[in-house]
Amino acid sequence: MFWNKRIQKIRHEKKNGNELFQKNEDLSLESLKAMISNMDDGESIEHSISRNRKITIVYIKTLIDLERLNESIIQPVKNCSEEMIHTCLSSEKIVAVTTLDNAQKLMMQGHVLIYDDKGHLWAVPLENPLARSVEESQSETILYGPKDSFTEQIDQNITLLRRRLPLTELKTEKFSAGYLTKTKVVMLYVEGIANPDIVDIARKKISKINFDMIIEQSNLAAFMEDHIHSVFPQFQQTDRPDQCAYSLGLGKIVILVANTPFALIAPITFFHLFQSPEDYIHRWIVASFLRSLRYVSYMVSILLIPLYVALTTHHYHIIPLQILFVLLESRSKLPFSPFWEGLLMLFVLEIIKEASLRMPNKTSTTLGTIAGIVIGQAAVEAGFVSKILIVLVGVAAVASFLVPNYLLSKTNTLIQFAYLILASFLGIPGIVLGLIHMLAHLNGLTSLKQPYFSPIAPLYWRDWMDFFFRAPIPWMKKRPKQADALFKWRYNRGDG
Amino acid sequence: MRSPIFTVLLIGCICFLTGFSPFSDQNTVEEIAPVTFLAVKQGEEKGSLTVATLVPPIMNEEKQFFSTKVRLLEQGRRQFNFKYYREIRFGQLRMLFIDEQIAKTGIVNLMDTLLTDPEVSPRLFLIVFKGDFEAYTKNQMQKQKDLDYYLYRMFKHYEKENQGEIAVTNIHEFMEKTHTPYSDPYMPVFNVDKNCFSYEGTGFFSNGKLKGQTDKEQDQFFLLLSKSKFLKNVIIEPLDLSLGEVHAIVKKQVNLKDHTVVLKIQYRGRIDEYRGSKDLNSQADFYELTDEIKDYLEEGTVSLLKTFQELGVDPLEIGRQTLTPVSKSMSAEDWLTFWKSAKIKVDCSIELEPLTI
C-alpha cells in the first residue's frame, strides 16, 4: 500500500530485448539527428561542399579519433567534386548504410556517418583505440618465460596469439554477445587439431546467449558452463598468450572477449587449475615436485583447520602426546569451542584477504601488519584463540596461495566451512564424507561436455604424463585424450 | 516426495554409519584429562587394588598425583573423576605399571578390562615393578615436569628402534602370547624406590601369572634369542670383555624321540672392549679367547633354558617346532610336560669381526 502511493508502477513490456532497441524508422537526416538527441557527446556538423551541395556528419565524439576526423573526412569531403562523396575518402573500409538500425550500430562502434543531400549515408571507421600497451601479467607472474599478457583490445590479443601460432588453420570465429553491450567475442581453435564436435558445442553455446550484458569473460563463462551451481570453475581464465597458444596447440578452444584482458580456455579438467606455465620451464623433476607441492598445499589449505577441529573435539586419542599437552595448555583458557574458534579465525582471515585485495598497495602493507601483529598476536594474548590455531591458520592461508588459479583458491574458504561443520559433528569420518562428496561432485562435472575429473575418471593413462607429475616434454608424444584432439601425435611423423 | 525421504534416509545412514550417537563421548581436549599411565598395586585387603596415575597439568599448575583404593579398575577412574575437575580419560593411556604381587596372582582380568575399553590403544606398554612406585612418582614429579612422557618415550624407543636393550611388550602382544599355545608372554621388570627406576630383567608369565624373572646376565641371552636377536653390547664379566653389535641366528630343533631340545646359535659380533690378560695380537691367544667366549655363551644359554624349564614357561616359542604339516599337534599341556623334562643341547659358534679399522 505504502509503495503504491509513492511510486508510480512501471508496466514492463513483454518485448524481446533486441526489438526494444530496434529502429524501424526510415533513414533520414531527422531520424539521424533524433538518434543523437539528449546525447552530450553526440554531434552533427553540416558542411557546404562544391556544387552547392550539403553534407551532414554525425558521430559520437567520445568514440572516435577527433584528431583524424578533420584530415581524414572533413578536408577531403569539403574539396570533393565527385558525385559520390565516398570516392574522395582514402579509407578503404567505407560502408554504405541503408537502414537506420545499421547506422546506429555502426555509429556506436566508432564510425562517422556522412549523410549527403541526396539521401546517401556512408559510415567511415574512425574508432579511438584507447589501447594500453602490452604489459607483464599481474595475475600469473612467472620468473623465466614470456612477459607479455593480453590487453583489453581483442584484435591485439589475437595478434599475440597469431604470432605464436602462424597458421592459416588458426580459425577465429566472431560472435556478438549481449544486446546492450554487443560485446565482441572471438572463438579461436586450430582446425584439424581441435575436435569439431567440441567446437560446435562452444559455437552453439555462445550463439544461444540472449542476455543484455556480457561485460567480461566470467559473464560469458557463466552462460557456457555445463554446471552453473558448482563452486569449481569449468573454464580456465588466463591473461597469458603463451598459455592460450599452448592450449590451442593441444586441441583446446580459446575464447577472447572484447574489453577484457582475460581469455577462456576449454575444455579443461580440475587438475589444469593446478598447472602453471612455469611447469614447462623448470626441469621436469623440479616441475613435478612443485606441482605435487601444489596439490598437497591445496589439501592442506582445505583440511588443516577442519582436522584441528575434528582432533580437538572428537579424536584426542590420535594426537601425539607432546602436542596434546601443548594443546591442552593452549586451549585451557579459551571461551570458544574448537568449532567456533576455527570458524571465527576463518572469518577473520577471509576478511583480511578481501580487505587486502580491495586496498591500494601502500595501504595493504599496513593492513598486513595490523592483521599479522594485532589480530594474530593480540587474539592469542586476549584469549580468543589458541596459539596452535593461529599457526595452523597461517599455514593454511599460505598454502592456499600456492594454487595458481585464483578462482579455485577462492573456493577454498567455502569448502573449509563445509568441512568445518562436518568435522565438528562427525569428526574425521565427517571430513572423509565431505571428501567423498567432493570427489563425487568433481566426477560429475564436465567442461564443454568433456569429463572434468579426467585423467582419473575416466582413466586416461595417456594424460598422466602431465598430471600430478610433469614428465619430460619429449616423452609427451601424444596430445591429451581429454581434449579429444583430431590429430593425437605431437611429433612430426614425416620427419621420422 | 521421494527426494526428501531419500535425503533424510541418506543423512540418517551417514550419521549412524559414522558412529554418530546422541550419547557420544564429549572429547573436547580442554575438558578432559588424558592420563598416560596407570600404576596398579595390591591393596591391603584381599582382592583390592591401589590405582595411581599422574594427571597432566593445564595452565600453570602442578602435575597432580592421584591414588585410590578400589576393587575394580573402572572404579578407580570414577574415583579420580570425583576428585578432579576434568574427566579422566584413558584414550592416551600408554603404560600400565603392574606391581609384582599382582602380577604373581594373575593379571588377565585386568588386561581384559583394558582391552575391552574401545578408548585404550592395544599399544599399551606393560611393565612389572618391584618397590614403591608411588614414592618414586611423587618424588620425581617435582624434578621432572614431564616424567610420564619421558618414561613413555623410553619404552617407545626400545620398541620401535629394536635396540635390543629391554624386552618391551604391549598389551596386544601379551594377550596374544597368553592365548597362543607354545608361547608365553614376558614383560620388563623394573626396580623402583624413591629415587630410582632401574631395569632389572625380564619377567616371564604363564597363564597370566608371573612365574619368575631373569637376572641381568641371563637377560642378555634372552634378548639375543628372542624377538630382536640383537644386542648392542654383551658384557662378559668373567672374561673382562665386552662384545659389540652382536647378532644371533638361532635354529631350534625338538627331537621327540630323544626327548631333546637342540639350539644351534650362530653369533656374530666384535670385541668392543677387553681388559683381560690375553694378547689379542697373538693368534693363539685370540683363538683361546674365542673358545672361552663360545663356552660362556653356551653355558649362559643352557642356564637360561634351564630357568625356563624350572619356571614352566616357553617364551622362546620352542614348542612350535613340534608342529608338523600332517600329524596332530601336541596339546599345550603335553608340550609343557615334555619341555620341563627335556634334555637341552646348545651348540654355539661365534664369528668375531676383525679389530682393525
From TrEMBL, chain A:
Pfam families: GerA (PF03323). The chain crosses the membrane at residues 253-274, 295-316, 388-408, 417-440. It comes from the Bacteria. GO terms for biological process: spore germination. Its main location: membrane. It is a multi-pass membrane protein. The keyword Cell cycle does not apply. It is found in: Cell membrane; Membrane. One of its GO terms (cellular component) is plasma membrane. Keywords: Membrane, Transmembrane, Transmembrane helix. Belongs to the GerABKA family. This is Spore gernimation protein. It comes from Mesobacillus campisalis.
TrEMBL record, chain B:
Coiled coil: none annotated. GO terms for cellular component: membrane. It comes from the Bacteria. It holds the Pfam family Spore_GerAC. Residues 25-191 form the Spore germination protein N-terminal domain. Keywords: Germination, Lipoprotein, Membrane, Palmitate, Signal. It is a lipid-anchor. It is found in: Membrane. One of its GO terms (biological process) is spore germination. Its main location: membrane. Residues 200-352 form the Spore germination GerAC-like C-terminal domain. Belongs to the GerABKC lipoprotein family. This is Spore gernimation protein. It comes from Mesobacillus campisalis.
